[in-house]
Design goal:
The complex is a heterodimer of chains A (73) and B (961). Chain A is built from four helices and no strands. Chain A is mainly α and 73 residues long. Chain A has one domain. Chain A is globular and about 30 Å long. The two termini of chain A are 17 Å apart. Chain B has 961 residues and is α/β, with parallel strands linked by helices. Chain B contains 30 helices and 37 strands. In chain B, strand 29 and strand 30 form a beta hairpin. The radius of gyration of chain B is 29 Å and the shape is globular. The two termini of chain B are 33 Å apart. Classes of the chains: A mainly alpha (73), B alpha/beta (961). At the A-B interface, helix 1, helix 2 and helix 3 of A face helix 15 and helix 22 of B.
Chain lengths: 73, 961
């Protein structure tokens, strides 16, 4: 998988997290992030997100990492 | 093909009659007697109108029911018992018990004398006059029985008046003008431009555009209201001068912006002579703009492609083939791609320029035949954040009002929208309300026209930095909460308390105070506080917004912040208030409603909902995917990486309209089968393998849904040039892929939509004929449709406040790219310009230019008209400079109506966090004076030329065969 491509989904996931993290408890944030990604991302993009999570070259926001448990793979 | 009876194709009906003066909306009823007939009308009605209602037609010339009574021609004089003389019936309001006489010898004599004076100064060339058969002056001469002109024709007159032909669509013949001033009043009252005036006094009074200018040099915006108002041949469409009067008319819906104006197409055989706004049109109420009224010639332009074409690769001549061969070629390629690269390697893009029925069929093709959910629409790049943001807060992905609702608004808040350019007919209605005294707040980085135009001035212009909408909207909400201006009763009764409490704590925080956000937005705290107070204290406050809200990295957050603002001030659920997205293209609302998004079925229901999916599976007799598909930018990304190989693109031009052109070009070049269905060889078609000729809105039946959720009929004016309406092409493609779609008429597609979609359950072509148009939801609960939404609850739920934290876009100005580019639209051109560039509208805007503030221009040595190179992180292009005080220093602006401008070569891949809607409105750029167009422009010009040659060779190839 090309590096650029994983960076594309990492960027998007982090952007979602940054926009959802304010004014709420962590659990709610994590729920909202995973809900959003399950609802709007094609399975191929979610697979790329998991691939990026396993690759130390990519920096996922902490909340995205927590949300991974609830994201359908 | 079955022929369906279409009553609206009948010629003019009684409802189009001009009743002389505007309707009165008073609830007080007045009874009076006219020529012995008793009639009851609302208080405020004129005697002229009351008479016309009971078919007593008093002669008139200067009166028209879309203009305030003027009383200048005196032809409508009547006698009223107890009143002296012969008052003009247009300026005389009805009174209880009035006894009116409209015909007797004295009145007849007076009217004849008036007509005699008019005719003594009018050419008597009736038989060869362009208005022959449609001239009110002629009609009135006949009505009053004028038989002689005792004064002769030798005296002082205006018969040698000049003709002004400067406007490409209509001419002004001064010799035929009777100075009734209907054109002047139409320009003021209907259009709100005030471009026309009566110059001179007494006998020398003449109509003048601007200050003795030609029409084209004046402020005239060519809306056509004056032409429509003219009772003689003075202002006439050139098409009428050239071809004569129409023989029949058909009512249809405009295919340009999201206002969705209703038009009467005046026809001679299958030739459209002119489009005249339909006075019964519920969206436009008899008004129009230069695009819908005049710019329809593209439909029969020589560039139209009317035969299917195929080619193996994009550096080959096109081969003109039969429909069967083209569809078989397309089907074979799509099948082989799926066999080789998997089910998800193909997809489709539906168009907001096509009908509801057509977009519905494309998404059905993807879900039922392609067996995936890779379907998206151009709304992705404009209003997808509206769909997301309004669903999350108001529980429905649509605007809440009618356009007419603005006439009950006290304070209008416009954010990131430019109605006088992009939604001109609504712009005119809005200006009318502002002239009546409503207040205006505009949030825009540019000084747009409505901020300071004749008789309309904004109370507050919050001239923010591009990309800071959320910070500004949060600050407005903070002031409202902080200063105790919230509508607590509304919040308590209508909104979800938990979400409100959470939002309240968030928005109360001092970081949202305008004193703290002014650093970010560039808007002074006091100005913002004053604007917030004005809006919050309004009896009725309404918010109108456009792409300046959605096309940002926080587009969805801004939409939710707008919904928060409407809820916290209680401005939802009645006339005069609401959240009003101004949609770009005519059927953006409809294409979204029809399930064009990869995650939802028609009616905004997620593909993972089992009940919904089973409903569609049963109707379509196939099993359906329960996972969301790829959105347009995701498709491009997958194409570049070799996973996405086939695209069916109906009526969209993604190569020109989508951001980061070079990225899009790379994606398109990576695919094996691009099927473009369009009326022209557009920019995307230059990358296509299959070209399926489309039909313009004049060549098909269907419906469009405008920004008010209003479903209106599109009616076929002429047979499709390529033999098929667009929906028939999709049906044929499905068949070539082995799936039967059995429809004889688009009404049957609408019946299927209605069966499957709760908010459309009550919609049918039959009901559309009865009601004229329908605003959804239309079902058992609201069988006549729903003009105003959320009057009692939010579609069965409570309103939800959403937390919208400001997050700065990564696209920031720096030393290398010190300016911010923002893009937009202008009045005369539409979207990618494929239609309007092929009309005379080119005289107003034949190239895109870069608007730049004088200070920024001076720093760079740029003068008006210089070539300016514009470079961003994505690419470089060059445009001519226009020095403009409308800009703020540090911000430049352009449009994207012309393909070689390359505006989107410069825009980047940044997008909205929730929907991937591109951030067209903020790109960090540098602008420098250059000598010539950019490398991209030179290369693209060559590529384009080559593609045109491949198209030209198609013909010679056929001859050789």
């Amino acid at each position: 998988m090309s590096q650029d491509r994983l960076q594309y989904v990492v960027g998007m996931a982090n952007q979602i997290a940054v926009n959802l993290l304010h004014g709420k408890q962590q659990t709610q944030c994590v729920n909202e992030i995973s809900h959003h990604i399950n609802r709007f991302w094609a399975p191929s993009m979610r697979a790329q997100l998991f691939e990026a999570a396993d690759n130390e070259n990519y920096q996922l926001e902490a909340l995205v990492i927590l949300a991974l448990k609830q994201i359908n793979n | 093909m079955i022929n369906f009876y279409d009553p609206k194709t009948e010629t003019r009906s009684f409802s189009t009659k001009d009743l002389g003066t505007p309707v009165s909306k008073s609830n007080v009823k007045i009874s009076l007697e006219i020529d012995g007939v008793t009639i009851v009308v609302p208080e405020g009605t004129s005697v002229l109108r009351a008479a016309a209602i009971c078919d007593i037609n008093i002669p008139k010339l200067c009166a028209s029911d879309n203009l305030a009574a003027f009383g200048s021609c005196r032809l409508c004089a009547v006698e009223i018992e107890g009143m002296r003389g012969m008052p003009a019936s247009c300026t005389t309001p009805v009174r209880a018990g009035m006894k009116v006489t409209t015909q007797n010898d004295q009145l007849a004599k007076l009217r004849r004398n008036i007509m005699e004076l008019y005719i003594s100064d009018h050419p008597l060339d009736c038989l060869t006059c362009s208005a022959n058969g449609d001239c009110e002056l002629q009609d009135m001469a006949g009505a009053v029985g004028l038989r002689q002109v005792r004064y002769g024709f030798e005296g002082k007159n205006h018969l040698d008046g000049a003709t002004d032909d400067s406007n490409p669509y209509f001419s002004f013949d001064d010799s035929k003008c009777i100075s009734c001033s209907r054109c002047v009043r139409a320009c003021e009252e209907v259009q709100g431009t005030f471009a026309l005036t009566v110059s001179g006094r007494g006998f020398d009074s003449r109509i003048s555009a601007g200050q003795q200018q030609s029409f084209i040099e004046s402020d005239c915006v060519s809306c056509g209201a004056c032409v429509q108002a003219c009772p003689t041949a003075t202002l006439t469409e050139k098409s009428i001068i050239d071809h004569g009067q129409p023989d029949h008319s058909i009512i249809t819906t405009c295919a340009y912006c999201g206002v969705g104006c209703s038009f009467r197409a005046d026809m001679q055989g299958d030739r459209v002579l002119r489009m005249v706004p339909d006075k019964n049109g519920q969206a436009n109420q008899g008004h129009s703009c230069v695009k819908g009224r005049f710019a329809f010639g593209y439909a029969t332009h020589k560039d139209r492609i009317t035969s299917p074409m195929i080619r193996d690769n994009i550096e080959q001549d096109w081969r003109e083939v039969s429909w069967e061969e083209a569809l078989a070629f397309a089907a074979k390629r799509l099948n082989s791609i799926q066999e080789q690269h998997g089910r998800n390697s193909i997809g489709a893009i539906t168009s907001s320029r096509c009908t509801n029925e057509e977009t519905y069929l494309v998404q059905k093709l993807v879900r039922a035949v392609f067996q995936n959910n890779n379907v998206d629409t151009c709304a992705r790049v404009c209003h997808s954040p509206t769909g997301y943001g309004l669903k999350a807060t108001l529980n429905e992905s649509a605007g809440t009002q009618t356009f007419e609702s603005v006439m009950a608004t006290d304070v209008v808040l416009i954010i990131g929208a430019n109605p006088t350019d992009a939604h001109p007919v609504f712009g005119s209605l809005l200006k009318r309300r502002l002239r009546q005294g409503a207040k205006l707040i505009v949030v825009d980085p540019r000084t747009i026209d409505i901020i300071d135009s004749p008789h309309t001035k904004a109370q507050h212009h919050l001239k923010l930095r591009p990309g800071t909408n959320v910070a500004l909207l949060n600050a407005l909400a903070h002031v409202i909460v902080d200063e105790g201006l919230a509508d607590n009763d509304f919040i308590k009764s209508r909104c979800d308390d938990a979400s409100f409490q959470q939002w309240y704590l968030h928005i109360k925080d001092p970081r949202h105070a305008p004193e703290n956000t002014s650093e970010i937005t560039g808007v002074a705290a006091e100005e913002l506080r004053a604007a917030a107070r004005l809006f919050a204290n309004a009896h009725n406050g309404a918010i109108y917004y456009g792409l300046g809200v959605t096309e940002h990295s926080q587009g969805s957050s801004s939409v939710m912040a707008i919904a928060n603002l409407a809820m916290v001030t209680g401005n939802i659920g009645r006339e005069g208030v609401g959240v009003n997205p101004l949609r770009g293209q005519n059927n953006v609302q409809g294409s979204c409603d029809m399930g064009s998004f990869p995650h939802e079925f028609p009616g905004y229901r997620h593909v993972s909902e089992d009940d919904t999916r089973q409903l569609f599976e049963q109707e379509w007799q196939v099993s359906l995917d329960n996972e969301p598909g790829l959105r347009i930018p995701n498709m491009f990304e997958a194409a570049i990486h070799g996973d996405f190989k086939g695209l069916y693109c109906q009526g969209e031009d993604i190569a020109q309209s989508d951001p980061n052109t070079q990225h899009v070009q790379k994606a398109l070049s990576s695919m094996h089968c691009i099927i473009v269905q369009d009326i022209f060889l557009n920019e995307t078609a230059k990358y296509a393998h299959v070209f399926l000729p489309g039909s313009s809105f004049m060549e098909k039946n269907g419906t469009f849904t405008n920004a008010e959720r209003r479903i209106s009929r599109v009616r076929k004016l002429m047979p499709p040039l390529a033999g098929k309406e667009d929906w028939q092409v999709t049906v044929a493609l499905a068949k070539a892929l082995g799936y039967e779609m059995d429809y004889q008429h688009p009404s049957e597609i609408m019946d299927e939509i209605a069966r499957l979609t709760p908010s459309f359950h009550g919609v049918s072509y039959e009901k559309l004929e009865q009601l004229g148009s329908i605003q959804w939801p239309c079902n058992d609960q609201s069988p006549l449709g729903t003009p105003i939404m959320h009057t009692k609850d939010f579609v069965g739920q409570q309103g939800k406040f959403a937390i919208t934290e400001y997050v700065a876009t990564p696209e920031r100005a720096n030393k290398r790219f010190p300016l911010l580019l923002t893009t937009g639209r202008i009045l005369s051109q539409y979207n990618v310009g494929a239609q309007t560039r092929r009309t005379e509208n080119q005289v107003w805007h034949d190239q895109d230019v870069l608007e730049i503030h004088p200070n920024d221009a001076e720093d760079r040595g740029i003068n008006e008209g210089d070539w300016v190179g514009i470079a961003s992180r994505a690419g470089t292009t060059a445009l001519r400079a226009r020095i403009s005080q409308r800009m703020q220093p540090g911000v430049v602006y352009t449009t994207f109506h012309h393909p070689l401008s390359g505006a989107n070569v410069v825009t980047t891949d940044n997008s909205d966090w929730a929907t991937n809607c591109p951030e067209y409105k903020v790109t960090a750029v540098q602008a420098v004076k250059v000598d010539q167009p950019s490398v991209w422009q030179a290369e693209y010009a060559q590529f384009s030329q080559r593609q045109q040659q491949y198209l030209a060779n198609k013909k010679s190839a056929k001859i050789a065969d």
